[in-house]
Here is the input.
Amino acid sequence: MPSLRKPWHSMAKALILGCLFTGFLLLFYAYVAPLQVSMAEPPDESSCSPPAPPLNSSPGGPCRPKTDIVFMKTHKTASSTLLNILFRFGQKHRLKFAFPSGYNDFNYPSFFKRSLVHNYQPGDCFNIICNHMRFRYPEVRGLVAPDAAFITVLRDPARLFESSFHYFGTVVPFTWRLTGRDKLAKFLQDPGRYYNPRGFNAHYLRNLLFFDLGYDSGLDPRSPQVAEHIREVEQRFHLVMLQEYFDESLVLLKELLCWELEDIVYFKLNARRASAVPRLSGELYRRATAWNQLDALLYRHFNASFWRKVEAFGRERMAREVASLRRENERMRSICIDGGRAVAAEAIQEASMQPWQPLGTKTILGYNLKKRISRRHQQLCRKMLTPEIQYLIDLGVNLWVVRLLKLPWSAE
Ligand SMILES: *[C@@H]1O[C@H](CO)[C@@H](O)[C@H](O)[C@H]1NC(C)=O
Here is the structure.
């Protein structure tokens, strides 16, 4: 007679093995999923096709606030601050966000796909898309109304490179060979010696803007494709903002979207403490620009078109509007912020106000809310100061993978 212990034993074994295997698969998936290169998918016929909007008021009449917005969130460009603005606007108007599932990005650095949107059903329409992604226009296009506004932010590529090197350097393994205090200078002395275009997370360290916008960041700068890509960005985006002229950019945004001043007030989020921001010397600045040549060409183009837009808007009018935005920011600062300024992580009292930190450092600043804030401003103050990850959670996004693994590259 076969013993009863045997099958019981093997069942238990199978059960344990099964659990281990499932756990392993989950972890494996969590690690590998964001790294997979996605296959090209044929465009489907299931695009968002909203009912025709009611006829607008007569031309020349007051405009209506635009509620359909795609914000292509580039890395290290003050985009977290803009995200906060979009979150607040979306809440105020009860708009429908297209959010990712599990992460705070759409499977970056893989290309964006509609199926990555949480609870996506073919034909769904969304008002706002604003989480990190590697841009793929046809996929995004199909999720929003035909007249949605497409916006993005660029930044001087040398400065962006410096910031990205600081923030992501530790998750790019080929930088581990760099030793000593000034790793950045060492890298820029001889990038070819360290840089491996196929290395894990390599995209963070060369032409990151080009990469985020969905293009090949390893293109030869002399290739005619470069100008074609830049022209394409020009055609697809209604406004390309510049981090260096953030306030002017917001004024242009407000004009484009027919928003109110109160919609664009902001506090600078996710900033580094000043001592953690090295000045790139003239020589290093030139090297960083040359190393990121594609982004430099992109930036030069949109820097020029930005100032043409400001010209068309009216220089004096711009100066007036920027001044009133700054006044309003100041006013909110005195209403909301304890001590009136950003503080180091250790000095932040409320856990929900802690910003995400780059691996192994505490260089990102945050804020303390004032103890006493009038009822009228309480909500707004809290929202304006809530870091990105916490705000996503408040908006109902399930970030279990981010929380589980505390992925250092998942913030910004
Ligand atoms: C951008 O354009 C402005 C105005 O033409 C110029 O002063 C500035 O140096 C440019 N910035 C960069 C980083 O090229």
